[in-house]
Amino acid sequence: MGPVSEPCFLSVVIPVYNEEENVEPLHQSVVTALSGLNRSYEIVYVDDGSTDGSLAKLEKIAEASPFATVIQLRRNFGQTAAMAAGIDHACGEIIVFLDADLQNDPADIPMLLAKLDEGYDLVSGWRKNRQDNWFWRKLPSTVANRIISFTTGVHLHDYGCTLKAYRSEVLKGIRLYGEMHRFIPAFARQVGATVTELPVNHRPRVHGQSKYGIGRTFRVVLDLATVKFLASFSGNPIYLFGGSGLVFIGLSLITGLIMVLNKLLYGIYFIQSPLLLLSALLFILGFQSILLGLTAELLVRTYHESQGKLTYVIRRIFRSKE
Questions:
Q1: Measuring CA to CA, which of 45, 74, 143, 164 is 20 to 30 A from 16?
Q2: Helices and strands: H and E segment counts in the chain
Q3: How far is CA 78 from CA 13, 74, 180, 231, in A?
């Protein structure tokens, strides 16, 4: 296919961070996988502040390939921001994400597209036979996936698999922050998208080093709390904070009633009981929760009215001169 300056059928978005030895064989694998589609496509590489020779090799790829685009971010913003940059600059009706470490198999892309053709909006890859260390990678991932599925109500075996296919309209309205890219299926379901998953091939890493560690699991748990809040209370945070405040105030009143009964029945003065301090603390906590809910309502309205801020800064964009 020729250059894709106009809307195309498929955009393959690949975040790259220090994958110097992988980018060239990856590009060849992707081209081979897509050449049989007979549909227009582009490959969008997002260099996320690589400090090795990844960018130089990506520039050569962009110069030689009319369907390849390289976006260079000014520094390492993280995978989520890199994916957001790819989304914003993708032209495809379908957007597929792929890791640059060659562990995802580009040959699985046609299978994901075929599943989308059945009427789904999002097809998630499932690394059923994952080729990673069991203790440091597979076990934390399994635990995290079950927690995420339970919390969000979107049951997937492998939220962490980057290989996913989306209809572009599902992604365009989603703003990504932190490590939120793994929660896109949950966000998509909120807007009525149909989600499914397919087992995909997963290969052991041959070159380079993994950018993931067990510490990332803890960040995922914290991000999950944010996702749950956004899913359930983003439009009306006063229900969460105000409801909690009313509960605390109710407990304060119950504690006060117990103090009154102790005084009437047992002659215990308020000042002699620790319940006085507890009642005061509960009331203050409840009042502050309600105030926090009102503040959150103001912030939510400001957020919804000013979503033009990006999570990344682009230095340059490389395209073929052909």
A1: 143
A2: 10, 8
A3: 15, 12, 11, 23
Would you call 245 exposed, middle or buried from its count of C-beta atoms within 10 A (0-12, 13-18, 19+)? buried
Rounded to 10 degrees, what is the CA torsion of 114, 117, 120, 121? 100
**Mean pLDDT value of segment 182-205:** 87
CA-wise closest residue to 40 among 89, 84, 5: 5
d(CA 164, CA 166): 7
Cα dihedral 104→107→108→113 (10° resolution): 130
Q: Judge whether residue 107 has pLDDT over 90.
A: yes
CATH class of 8-234: alpha beta
- The candidate with the shortest Cα–Cα distance to 222, out of 184, 179, 176, is 179
CB 199 within 8 A of CB 128: yes
What are the residues whose beta carbons fall under 8 Å from the beta carbon of 282, sequence distance 6 or more? 248, 249, 251, 252, 255
Summarised one tens digit per residue, pLDDT across range 206-251 is 775 665 555 566 777 777 877 777 777 777 788 889 999 999 999 9
Q: Provide the pLDDT confidence category of residue 2 given band limits of 50, 70 and 90.
A: very low
Residue 131: both structure tokens together: 């080729």
